[in-house]
Amino acid sequence: MRTLTIGLLGCGTVGRGFVELLDAERSRIRARYGLELHVTRILVRDLSRERAGVAAELLTTAPLDVVDGDCDVVVELIGGTHTAGTLVRRAIASGRHVVTANKALLAAAGAELFDDAVRRGVEIGFEASVCGGVPVIGALRRGFSGDSIESIRGVLNGTSNYVLCRMDEGLSLADAVSCAQELGFAEADPTLDLSGEDAAQKLAILAQLAFGEGVRRASVSGIASLRTADLRRARRNGEVIRLVAEARRVPGGVELEVGPRRLPAGDPLATVRDEQNAVIIRGRAIGEVTLSGRGAGSLPTAAAVMSDVIAIGISSRAGARLVA
Ligand SMILES: NC(=O)c1ccc[n+]([C@@H]2O[C@H](COP(=O)([O-])OP(=O)(O)OC[C@H]3O[C@@H](n4cnc5c(N)ncnc54)[C@H](OP(=O)(O)O)[C@@H]3O)[C@@H](O)[C@H]2O)c1
Q1: Closest CA to 73 of 55, 94, 59, 52
Q2: What pTM, to 2 d.p., does this model score?
Q3: CA nearest ligand 1 atom 15, residue
Q4: Is 103 known to be catalytic?
Q5: 88 Cβ below 6 A of ligand 1
Q6: Which ligand 1 atom is the nearest neighbour of the CA of 132?
Q7: Per residue in 143-186, pLDDT tens?
Q8: Which of 279, 299, 318 is nearest to 25 (CA)?
Q9: Ligand 1 midpoint to CA 79 (Å)
Q10: Cα distance between residue 177 and residue 171, in whole Å
């Protein structure tokens, strides 16, 4: 049995999910992977907030208590780029592995952080940063490593998809966004989602993994200017509108495009419902593989984070195999 100590940065939607999931899965992880996962400290902003199921004595508002404390892995779930970036850099510099769900941080500083991690001989896990609980990073990093990827096409932004589904039922864009906000599927400021920028950031991470060099942005647009009548017109033609993110090989490189697309009702992306995500990866030898599921939410995202922590625990254990 190997003990892996974890410093947790953040105990919000995903961080609390991580603590809950660890409680539920601890004995299976022990038995299956020979790993004892132990959270040593948890960084928050507000110590007075009610956090059911979280041991109050682990909470701290002092970041260095966590990143300089007793931990093999720093799990970054605070979001944003400033504090998160500073703490992740410090964790890597001190030889700790990092797991993050923070797509914005990877979009802003991923190349530098991965270089630092390679130099320091530590790993960065980021399965949860794209499509939450849908294991698309693992599929690209491992499953497709033996094949050449030709294209990636997906519905990567659950908020936009939820809004489009409600507009398809007749709601206006504004009402559909309010509805998404009430249910917690959209931020108070949904600009990043509705502009297509969130999907573009996720696509850039996937494309970097799939294609490496030569990836360039062709165009990014979102759903903010769509009207209910546009969806009605599409439906009359047997089509569905989805915000599609696509990366494909073109002469001289790979182009990234994000925008609303009219899809035939039989297209696998046309059937993606509500806040779900889906990704279709086409490999030269493998052909098309479709992954779909819950792209966000507390427990699905926490499960993706946990999968990275387990992979680090296994790979840092001498002689262990990745699959038990
Ligand atoms: N929510 C999802 O479904 C989802 C899905 C995929 C990826 N992600 C990513 O996961 C990360 C976390 O998201 P979330 O939804 O869990 O966020 P959240 O609910 O806002 O939680 C953030 C946590 O970090 C703490 N925190 C934030 N800034 C801090 C600071 N400067 N110092 C100390 N503590 C700080 C907060 O403390 P307090 O609790 O005291 O305020 C809170 O516990 C983000 O990068 C997000 O993009 C989220």
Answers
A1: 94
A2: 0.94
A3: 13
A4: no
A5: no
A6: 6
A7: 999 999 999 999 999 999 999 999 999 999 999 999 999 998 88
A8: 299
A9: 5
A10: 9
